[in-house]
Design goal:
The chain is α+β, with helices and mostly antiparallel strands. The chain has five helices and seven strands. It has a seven-stranded antiparallel β-sheet with strand order 6-5-4-3-2-1-7, with helices on one face.
């Protein structure tokens, strides 16, 4: 994890004045609301970068954000409700993964400007949860054997082998934009 975090710091400049960051007491409350511990590298990212957009394309959901469209708690509910409805009613596309809070269930943590969603596969220790990228409008899911920080590293280096995320999506002139 530490090597991926060091790589993220090299690839994404830390904002001078990050917005909507957390602290250890606040995280306890958030994890209670989520009914699960969250990955340490994710909490580090939110505490360090706060609310913002990566490469003009990816929004990491932040539980401390006042904006419901990027708030982790709000988006978790909305996205999981959509996924449950699609599982029940979409006969054209198989939804192969269980949903949180079921064992190994998908838990959303980020979204793209295209409407794609990054999920954690909640199996085992939260700091070892792997990542699944989904295009909710199609049957496409990409599973990655990486953690949150490993996934960010792959995104920034454009090493995501995916039919969902287009090559060249990262705006190299806009690596991280803090939201106000």
């Amino acid at each position: 994890m530490l090597s991926a975090i060091n790589e993220i710091i090299k690839l994404i400049p830390i904002p001078e004045n990050p917005k909507e960051t957390g602290d250890s007491v606040s995280w306890e409350n958030i994890e209670e609301q989520c009914k699960t511990a969250l990955p340490d590298d994710y909490k580090w990212f939110i505490n360090t970068y706060g609310s913002g957009q990566i490469g003009g394309f990816v929004n990491v959901f932040n539980p401390f954000s006042a904006n419901k469209y990027i708030n982790l708690i709000s988006q978790m509910k909305v996205i999981l409700d959509i996924e449950r409805e699609l599982k029940e009613n979409d006969n054209d596309h198989e939804r192969p993964y269980p949903l949180f809070p079921d064992e190994g269930g998908l838990f959303p943590f980020a979204g793209t400007d295209n409407g794609d969603v990054f999920f954690w596969k909640t199996t085992g220790n939260p700091s070892k949860w792997t990542v699944i990228l989904a295009d909710l409008r199609s049957p496409y899911y990409n599973e990655y054997d990486t953690t949150f920080s490993g996934t960010l590293e792959k995104l920034m280096k454009e090493e995501m082998n995916s039919r969902i995320i287009p090559k060249g999506f990262i705006d190299k002139t806009n690596l991280f934009t803090s939201f106000k």
